[in-house]
Amino acid sequence: MKDLLIKFLRPYWKQLILTILLLSIQAISNLYLPNLNADIINNGVAKSDIPYIIHTGSYMLFVTLLLACCAVASSYLGSKISMSFGRDLRRAIFYKVESFSQADLDKFGAPSLITRNTNDVHQLQMLVLMGLNLMVMAPIMCIGGSIMALRQDVVLSYSIVIIVPIMAAVVGVILVKAIPLFRSIQVKIDRVNQIMREKLMGVRVIRAFVKNDYEARRFDEANRDLTTTTLRVNRIVAVAIPLLMIIMNVATISIIWVGGHRIDSGAMPIGNLTAFLTYVMEIMISVMIAMGMFIMVPRAEASAERILQVLNTEPSIEDKSRVVAVRNVKGTVEFCDVEFCYPGAEEPVLKDISFVARPGKTTAIIGSTGCGKSTLVNLIPRFYDVTGGSIKIDGVDIRDISLRDLRDMIGWVPQKAFLFSGTIADNLRYGNENATDEELWHALEIAQAKDFVMALPDQLYAPVEQGGVNFSGGQRQRLAIARALVKKPLIYIFDDSFSALDFKTDSKLRAALKKETANSTVIIVAQRVSTIMDAEQIITLNDNGTIAGIGTHKELMKTCEVYSDIVYSQLSKEEIA
Amino acid sequence: MSINDNHQNKKPEVRQHRREVRTRRHGGFGGGRAGAMAGEKAKDFWGTLKRLISYLKPQAIPMLLVILFTIVSVVFTVRAPRIMGSATNKLFEGLIGKTLPAGMTKEQVIFLLKATGKTQMAEMLSGMNVVPGQGVDFNALLHILLTLLAVYAAAALFQWLQQYTMAGVAQNIVYNLRKQVDNKLAKLPLKYYDNHSHGDILSRVTNDVDNIAHTLQQSITQIVHAIATVVGVLIMMFSISTLLSGIALTIIPLAFLVTMFIMRRSQKYFIAQWDSTGTLNGHIEETYTGHSVVKAFNQQDKAVERFDEENERVYESSFKAQFISSIIRPAVNFLNNVNYVIVCVIGGIRVSNGVMTLGDVQAFIQYSRQFTQPVVQVASIMNILQSTMASAERVFELLDEKEEVPDTEKPVVLEDIKGHVKFEHVYFSYTPDAPLIEDMNLEAKPGETVAIVGPTGAGKTTLVNLLMRFYDVDKGRITIDGVDIRDMKRDDLRKIFGMVLQDTWLFNGTIKENIAYGKEGASDEEIRAAAQAAYVDHFIRTLPQGYDTVLTGDASNISQGQKQLLTIARAFLADPKILILDEATSSVDTRTEVLIQQAMAKLRKGRTSFVIAHRLSTIRNADIILVMNKGKIVEQGSHEELMAARGFYYDLYMSQFLAPVSESLENGNSVIR
């Protein structure tokens, strides 16, 4: 965590030093005020010297003003530094992740990266903000307070040695006890939320099976459990503040008692007692705050660790230092003995994959779940790099082409149709900013999405919510297909992109697509045989990731058992003929 | 939160995404109470407050105790500085007394001082309780300090009692509130679920209720405490010195106003911070989840550009929000210190003049310090209350939703059910302006299969909704064995049906519990038999914990196909008279798919079945085929009849099952008719 803080706070070192300086001034003035007050009592009140009182009083006012100015200035700088720190850290993570390959991203998983980029940064940012105020202030107040207390009366200052450890121990015990308790509440809250979520998702099933009573009991149990735990925790925590108050107050009373004797024996002037009490209070409060800060540190430490993991990851797929410039590409995709193994996996997902996908032809890939169909097509845009063999486009190894050029050639439709927030037009223009409205409509028409887009009040400019949640699965898929069409690429990759479409839409779409992609290389991954029956070339994969057979539907039905098995499981005999 | 609209919901697209975004932002911004400052305003603050208070009524006695304990605790706390002041007085008196010649009376000393021109000193002495020549009276001091100790202890004790009691009150209310919401949800019609996003409902039950809980636990006691303290301190201050109180009273409202002013200014930036953080997090979220799409379309630079913009915006607003709100403390501290200095000076002068004692000045300083804190507290609680009322409003809104039509008074109980289903002149629509089903008639005799076919989103679930009475027909009636389903109890009706839908709903529990969901008190043998019938017994036994394997939250530890088999086993165990099946098996591998098919076929045997059909064999063998499109039933009849009619079904059939692309192109005209 230290390295991270140093690295990202370094650009602000000047402001940082200034802030610490300002905070020190604040701390000192804060400590100085009781001292002046003691002077008023000792030299002014006890000696009935009114001019002295007024003089010292105006001096106090001046100190107060200084204090306020320093406080405003330091919180200005503190806010600025901590928020800049957060901004810079967020940016560094985002830049890093954008350079990641899919494999790098998978290592963390998108949700985890999102948390690291948002919550973890927030955690550290808060630490810096709080740290700049309290962490700097608390030790100064603690040390300064002790010095001032010593100046008031040395003997009485021994009391600090007794009080502070007791205070720290009590606060420590409370924290150690309370933190696991709060954690257990969180677990129970999660449980209540989870049951509620299940009930919402399964409302039809619950009602269909007439399980309302059962569900009510289930929820009630979790609710009761949460309530009793929270109650217990709150009642334990209820002891904390009165307990701390008692400790502080007992300390005060003992100091007055001991101090009284010292005053009586003439060892200490009376004004010093009041000042001393103030200092002891300041010290105790600082200890409390410092202890409180310590709970933040382990959490921030964990966040820093997670962030560093991201920042220290080097992207695994980058352009070579010298890339081949590609011109007049036709779009022939060739797999030569390709092998692919996920990092850390024992067995390769794909082995000995060789085939050629030619422009103007459709190459389909089929096989049972988990046999590596999607993985295979993910190798083409280099989301992952092959671990053996090579993939060539027009004879050039794709690793020799720049990532930008390579991906510009490809129109990719992902398995999970992913839309961005914005408008439909924004999404469609994602691969081709300059597309005209006519081109967009044309693509929508081919993708069988024209009807429903037309029906929207804002048509092309209708809003798309984050993740496209305001469209159905089928609609999202069709929009994703249209998005790829707008790009007019050389190579189309459809990664099981028709699964949410009904058969009728599916076949209409493919018919329209056929014309549009007459000169392009089309690679389709599919689950449904009917989707790919008419492809020029069907590559059937075995469960172990090798090729079981390549050919047309008719050929494979005769020669490839894996293929015919799949077909039989989906269609009844009469439809196959 | 991927919602598969095809199967789960029908038309109502009126989901409240805005609210979902709000919820997400809530979570996104590091969570916690950080939002309290951002102030969501309640629409009807006082109305909602009144209603929330009505929830306190059953807790009236403990609530009164809480208030009583708070007041008692404050009374003691407020006494303390005064007592401490008298301790100081004792010390001061001892100190002065020592400097005076012993053997003289106080009056003699004063006379002497006046005579020597030390009038100031004389005046001070006149206000004191000094015995010349005598030092500190430690007996008296001990007595005072012990009293002080007792007072402090009492204050702490009552503070603890108050917290302790309040915890009970708050938790009791929140428990009941959650329970009420849960009960309410059980009574709401399906329509409510379909029109509200799960995220929205969930956040009302969880975030909003938690928010209320927190306020009840913390803010209410704080506000009572703050008010009691203000009153108590005021009384004490006036009892010491009217002049000083007057000064303090001009400073304190000033502190309050300054706090409110700054808070209001910063609120604007807090909202901006909230909004921009939400946007930024949204951008991060979608860029990361769509990483491969971003890369495939070479859009990293664009994503980074947009990130920088949003990130800068977050920085600007959060910096301002942070800075402005952090001014409150120094500003209040400044006023506090000014007050402190003035009290010191005037107090000092007055002690010198003998009008006040030193201990009183000291006590007064402490009082004035205690005064500003609750004032600032009240200001910030006002903000928290606003957001709590907004939460309460949302919870109440849910509690006020219209409930399902109650069951009939005298329900018919069917015995020996045959499974004869009839739709008679049924009319139905989700929204009045878009009629869906008009004058539908259908008869399924016992044991017959009704296949429902149609393109995606054709509204096949509508039929399920009507049969199970998730929705009621607008006109006409549906009967089972001749009895209108509205004349039965909903629970009895639903027990007749078995349902296997594509969205396999399994809950967090063991496999055994999930299967047993179909029949309460099922024996292990029955469960095993059901699993065997559904071809899933073997698979279950290969799992390390067998039937006791716990399915995690979203049951991600078993495959989609196995989940489907489990739901079939559940239906077997329930042994219903009428079945509703969804044949769709997406993302299921071929072997499992065959199993599912066989299991479904077995399940259908001898039962009246409504099948959302995806398989030609099912459709062709069905007794009646219902063809749906755009939510309406467009055709109805046997396979042969429908083929002969050359209508929508014919097109569908040709394109779906037979014609490869080239052919359907040629038939294009008829397809796109």
Task: Write a concise keyword list for the protein shown above.
heterodimer, A: 577 residues, alpha/beta, ABC transporter transmembrane region fold, Rossmann fold, 2 domains, 6-stranded mixed sheet, 4-stranded antiparallel sheet, 20 helices, 65% helix, elongated, disordered C terminus, B: 673 residues, 12 strands, 64% helix, 9% strand, disordered N terminus
Can you walk through the features of this model?
- The complex is a heterodimer of chains A (577) and B (673).
- Chain A has 577 residues and is of the alpha/beta class.
- Chain A has two domains: 175 residues, ABC transporter type 1, transmembrane domain (ABC transporter transmembrane region fold, Up-down Bundle); 238 residues, P-loop containing nucleotide triphosphate hydrolases (Rossmann fold).
- Chain A is built from 20 helices and twelve strands.
- Chain B is α/β, with parallel strands linked by helices and 673 residues long.
- The relative contact order of chain B is 0.09.
- Chain B contains 25 helices and twelve strands.
- The longest helix of chain B has 53 residues.
- Among the domains of chain B are: 217 residues, Rossmann fold (3-Layer(aba) Sandwich); 32 residues, no CATH class.
- In chain B, strand 1 and strand 2 form a beta hairpin.
- The interface between A and B is large, with 160 and 176 residues.
Residue windows where pLDDT falls under 50 for at least 5 positions of chain A: 573-577
Shape annotation of chain A: elongated
Number of strands of chain A: 12
Contiguous runs where pLDDT drops below 50 for at least 5 residues of chain B: 1-39, 658-673
N- to C-terminal distance of chain B? 37 Å
The helix tally of chain B amounts to 25
What is the CATH topology assignment of the largest domain in chain A? Answer: Rossmann fold
